[in-house]
Specification:
By secondary structure, the protein is α/β, with parallel strands linked by helices. It contains 11 helices and 18 strands. The chain has 2 domains: about 210 residues, Alanine racemase (TIM Barrel); about 120 residues, Lyase, Ornithine Decarboxylase, Chain A, domain 1. The chain starts with 5 loop residues before the first strand and ends with a strand. The structure holds pyridoxal-5'-phosphate (PLP).
Length: about 350
């Protein structure tokens, strides 16, 4: 018997979520962001589900080349650009667009002597202070790119630090946009801006391309529920009860005897642990569903198992269905309880659970 833990990817839900992008920003082209194996959903599933997207954006160069080799013929964008100068000829040969974010990448591109021209997205650091040129350096970087014979086009790209937080006190979207608009004024090129939160909360931002990620997978930035935005969960993480323990008041459960029963109770042991991608830091009370009924995690999550409160679920037995997140429990609820974001939970599900696909 296989261990009863599975991650089921719903292609129809992903397709639906992409249609929500179109509804929000009907005039923008959209990169479907498929980095990190499509946020844990499988790159091949994503290619199928996002066939309506105008292109795919990711980080991993080997995966980008594999997409081309498998016949993907729409634009592909490397969000962090290249890492080593030696990668450039391969990117050019495969018609893969990439970000240029600093002088190190710039110099490599200037010296690359490419035979096939490339499309470049010039990254601006408009307040995130991660990748990109400062606004005051931007025009000069643009001119350098324009002077390179093997650069075919230059697009303008920046990333928002706080698009999920209205009127952020430190770096609001409006301030990043002000810097971006100022630095690109008078330059010609397409604009490549919004992530999911900007698409959902600031659909009026003027941009030629958008870069949705989390919303395509039915997650939301900022801990809100996906349902409120008309998004459907694309991953259901499911298991079963593999043992039941009736414990007495005062007895405890699991490593560290972290949880102690305040009355006689029934505990269910679930085949899922941190070695599968469930967060070990999830505390007592983290929501979990048994037979479709919401209950709570108790005790410490261990490597291969976790324990739940079955008091109040009298029908539960060995083999009862457990939903960690997805079908019964929104992933944000688990993420909020564990002090993280749905992004991290999705990406953490590894190859140990069985992976299933719902077309
Ligand atoms: C990951 C990423 C995105 C997608 O962000 P979401 O919040 O998942 O929509 C967009 N742009 C860049 C540069 C990214 O790295």
């Amino acid at each position: 018997m296989t261990r009863p833990l599975s991650a089921t990817i719903d292609i129809g839900a992903m397709r639906h979520n992409f249609s929500v992008v179109r509804q929000c920003v009907p005039n923008a082209k959209a990169w479907a962001v498929v980095k990190a194996d499509a946020y844990g959903h499988g790159l091949a599933n994503a290619v199928k589900a996002f066939s309506d997207a105008d292109g795919l954006a990711l980080i991993e160069i080997d995966k980008a080349i594999a997409l081309r080799e498998n016949g993907y013929n729409k634009p592909i964008l490397l969000l962090e650009g290249f890492f080593k100068a030696e990668e450039l000829p391969d990117l050019a040969a495969h018609d893969i667009s990439f970000a240029v974010a600093n002088d190190h990448q710039m110099a490599a591109l200037e010296n690359a002597n490419l035979k096939t021209p490339v499309n470049v997205h010039l990254k601006m650091n408009s307040g995130m202070n991660r990748l990109g040129y400062q606004p005051h350096e931007y025009k000069k970087a643009y001119a350098r790119l324009k002077a390179i014979p093997w650069v075919k086009s230059v697009a303008f790209m920046t990333h928002f630090a706080n698009s999920e937080t209205p009127n952020h006190p430190k770096v609001p979207v409006t301030e990043q946009l002000r810097r971006f608009n100022g630095a690109t004024e008078g330059l010609t090129g397409i604009r490549n801006l919004s992530n999911s939160a900007a698409i959902l909360l600031h659909p009026d931002i003027k941009t030629d391309w958008v870069r949705p990620g989390i919303m395509l997978y039915g997650g939301t930035p900022g801990g809100k529920s996906a349902e409120a935005f008309g998004l459907k969960p694309a991953m259901s993480f499911d298991s079963e009860i593999i043992q039941i323990q009736h414990i007495k008041k005062g007895e405890s459960v699991g490593y560290g005897s972290l949880f102690t029963a305040s009355e006689n109770m029934t505990i269910g042991v679930v085949a899922c642990g941190y070695a599968d991608g469930y967060p070990r830091v999830a505390p007592e009370g983290t929501p979990i569903a048994v037979n479709g009924i919401k209950t709570r995690l108790v005790g410490r999550v261990s490597m291969d198992m976790l324990t739940v409160d079955l008091t109040g679920i009298p029908g539960a037995h060995i083999g009862s269905k457990v939903n960690l997140w997805g079908n019964d429990i929104p992933i944000e609820e688990v993420a909020n309880a564990a002090g993280t974001v749905g992004y991290e939970l999705m990406c953490a599900v590894n190859s140990r659970p069985t992976h299933l696909v719902k077309e």
